[in-house]
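Figure caption, in words: inputs first, then the predicted bound structure.
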Amino acid sequence: MSKALVAYFSASGVTAKLASKLAETTGADLHEIEPKQPYSAADLNWNNPNSRSSVEMKDKAFRPEIANKVEHMDQYDIIYVGFPIWWYVAPTIINTFLEQYDLKGKTVIPFATSGGSGMGNTNAELAGSCPGAVLKEGKRFSISVSEPELKAWTEQATV
Ligand SMILES: Cc1cc2nc3c(=O)[nH]c(=O)nc-3n(C[C@H](O)[C@H](O)[C@H](O)COP(=O)(O)O)c2cc1C
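Bound structure (flavin mononucleotide present):
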């Protein structure tokens, strides 16, 4: 039996709800990726080109710091990584997260919430942060996704 982890970053709680549902559906462990400096509402203002998220997301090499770590990452075979779509990709804190571990041989499956955009260019931006891992095609979900729908997705995503 392969062991799965659902790790997620959520700035305003939407992805957190989806991540809990996914962990419940799959029986996976749940881990919240906590930024060292939490994002305030002002930080998240995408209409302001000088807000923290705007400035960070303009620099693809920037790696926001993370406050916590997954214990014993080596026990997991499958890692679902969840996040809100920011500017059509994963927030760069997801790159920070992936780069903290040796994920060689593991399966990494992105999932996201958004205001409507799909996964966009997400995998192209994440691939370099998990060398040697099998990075699967991810999926953006509506927060109202049902548990059977999620379960069906995980079954085909982990093949
Ligand atoms: C900085 C920033 C950029 C965003 N960019 C996009 C985007 O490109 N496309 C989109 O559909 N939604 C975008 N959103 C909306 C979020 O993806 C959406 O509200 C998400 O569900 C929030 O999840 P969370 O509560 O887990 O942080 C953006 C939100 C923020 C704060």
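Helices lie at 14-26, 52-58, 92-99, 122-126, 147-157.
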